[in-house]
Amino acid sequence: MESTCLSVVLILGLLKRMSTGEIGEVNEIVKDLAVLVNDQGVMIDDISSNIDNSHAATAQATAQLRNSSLTCLLILIFGIVLLIVIIVVLKKEAKKEAYRKCLESNGVADSLTQGSFSKAKKSLSLWLQEASS
Question: Nearest 5 degrees, angle CA 40-CA 24-CA 12?
C-alpha cells in the first residue's frame, strides 16, 4: 500500500513540475497507448475467434472422416457379399450345365423329351453304374 501511495506522490510531483505543453504531450501519449491497447484487444479477440473456428472445423472434419471410413467399410462388405453370391450362383449354373451335358451324352435327356421314361430310367441306371465304378 505504501509503494502505491509513494508512486502517486511521485507522479503528482512530476506533474507539478511539468509545463502545460508537456502535460498535453503526456496526455497524447497516454491516448495513443490506449488506442494501441484497444487495437491489441481486438486482435486478441480475432485470434481467439479464429482458434475457436479452427477447432470447430477440425471436429467437423474428424466426424466426416469417421463417417466416410464407415461408409467405405460398408461398401467393401457389400461388395464381398455380392461377389460370394455371384460365385455361388455361377457354380450352381455350371453344375446344372454339367448334369445336363451328362444326361444328354447318355441319352437320358432325349428319352425324357420323347416321353420314354423306361428308356430314360435304363440310361440313367447305366450312367449311375458307370459313375460308381
Answer: 95
